[in-house]
Amino acid sequence: MTPLEWLDYEVLGNSVLTWATGLAVAVVAWLVLGIARRVLRNRLDALAAHTQLMAVKIAAYLARQTKGWFLVVLALFIASRFWMLSPSIDTLVTRVATIVLLLQMGLWGTAALLKFLELRRERQLAEDPGTVATLDLLGFVVRVTVWAIVLLLALDNLGVNITALVAGLGVGGIAVALAAQNILGDLFASLSIVLDKPFVVGDFLVIGDFLGSVEKVGLKTTRMRSLSGEQLVFSNNDLLGSRIRNYGRMFERRVLFSLGVTYQTPADKLRLIPKIVREAIEAQSKVRFDRAHFKGYGDFALLFEVVYYVLSPDYNTYMDIQQAINLVIYERFAEEGIEFAYPTQTLYMMRAEPADAGGSHSDG
User: Fold this and answer.
1) Distance between CA 146 and CA 140 in Å, rounded?
2) How many alpha carbons fall within 13 Å on the CB side of residue 189?
3) Which of 89, 91, 145, 270 gives 20 to 30 Å between its CA and that of 52?
């Protein structure tokens, strides 16, 4: 048999030349895919090393998660298109390639989500270490969810009827959710706190009649330390359903206060009071004056209302500034002879006229 005749020799429905061509295509495809993966991975790694963009870092991590066996199977699948295969073998090859693709997609999906959580975890370690456990739990939930989807798709590709399986999982999931709805509600509330960040560890919160600093955000509860020293424990679900005043996010503090002077204060002194107050406020650092007005007439005082801003959220700084302002106002009022009002009562007494001693009398 000559070499040309040997190439035309058929094996399993294909000539030796066809088998050789397919294998050559597989090798070339594998080499091209491997080179492309290496070039893409090196470029993305270089970009990720010089940028803080989360998308670039995730893409570089995904490139490293592209497996060699996936490239081999993909190259062989491309080569199989050159071969004449029986319907059963062709179906088997397609199913194997699909399952391998699903496995690789599962790796990409979990890698992308876990890399995202890892980057968030690094930030949380610096900003809020108490929420790291919640992110770890979220990573576990993500892995289970992704691989459950991959398993169902693989079974469906193999011809397994997954409708009954999905329905059974749905009924079981509903039963578990109903049995543990409080726990799941707190868990999802914990995830919401971690991802949305309405507050972080260290923030000072006011929740109804309770106030304190956040110490820890757990999977089920959030713990706060009150000003009087005791620990306050809130369910995460109840906490998100409450109206929260977060003083930890305060950038400046608006201060409103009033003062009253006596009704005997002359009009020229009344006109001078807003100027005195303004000078007292503007003499302080880290403040912004807003207004000072003669507001109205009280029961025993002429009332002035003052508004200014402290350019710091610190409460002690505010109290130091307010004290300095009060002292300056007190000294200036003393210099100008302006008297502060205090509760007084004026009692008016009327003296009755005595009866006429020589009143009328009847004649005897």
Assistant:
1) 10
2) 21
3) 145
**Angle separating helix axes 132-157 and 181-196, nearest 10 degrees:** 110
- For residue range 257-290, what is the model confidence (pLDDT) as tens digits? 999 999 999 999 999 999 999 999 999 999 999 9
Q: Exposure pattern of 40-50 as b/e (b: 16+ CB <10 Å)?
A: ebeebeeebee
Look at the block and give the residue holding tokens 């503090």. 253
What is the pTM assigned to this prediction? Answer: 0.49
Residue written as token pair 């169902």: 152
Measure the CA–CA gap between 182 and 156, rounded to whole angstroms: 34
Residue found under tokens 């959580």: 117
State both tokens at 274: 């807003």
Triad 72, 112, 40: Cα angle to 5°: 50
How many Å apart are CA 94 and CA 88, to the nearest integer?
A: 10
Q: Are 217 and 130 in contact (CB under 8 A)?
A: yes
Please, which residues bridge with residue 161 across strands? none
